[in-house]
Amino acid sequence: MEKRWLETLMTKEAAEDFGLDVKDLIKVRRKDGTYYVYKEEVSKEAYLEAIREERKYQKRRQRMFKEMAEDGVSIIPLHEVEKMKKEDKRKNINHFYESEIENMAVKHLMLEALAEEIEKLPDFDRKLMKLVFHTDLTQRQLAEILEVSVWKINTSIKKNKEILKNILTR
Question: Which residues contact 33 (CB under 8 A, 6 or more apart)?
Fold first, then answer.
């Protein structure tokens, strides 16, 4: 059977959730943070399925960003805001930057609250939701890792998202 190398990019937290030692992984620095690459040898079929799932994920993400742009939402990473500030020092546009930073601070607080609520979930649900939010794994990959069916993963994600949404919006 022909084998291929499948690489998964993940945060330190996700690697630890998998029980991986980050010292054994390849460290990658990006503008938005530090990530680790986990390499595993898989069958050609599993590799091709992962590539298909990744393409579907990228298309969904592109659609989401397009819809957000059509709704007038602008997404500017913090490092870009800082770069724009340096380039436009002569102009008085600090109000724009302050509101962007304020929005980012609110988002950060919301993410912290979400992380706290995830920690309160039962063991299986906590592991699953950490993987969902910290990795770009497909439901099939999650099912293999957690040794349950894809259906169980799908229903658990829906159930837990609803629980978290209800808790965080009350």
Answer: 11
Is the Cβ–Cβ distance between 129 and 121 less than 8 Å? yes
Contact 3, 43 (CB under 8 A): yes
**pTM (two decimals):** 0.44
User: Could you read off the pLDDT of 112-125 as tens digits, one per residue?
Assistant: 888 888 899 999 99
Give the integer Cα–Cα distance in Å for 152 and 144.
11
Q: How far is CA 9 from the centre of its chain?
A: 10
Return the bridge partners of 34, or none: 29
Question: What's the CA gap between 35 and 22, in Å, rounded?
Answer: 10
Q: Measuring CA to CA, which residue among 18, 14, 39, 36 is closest to residue 27?
A: 36
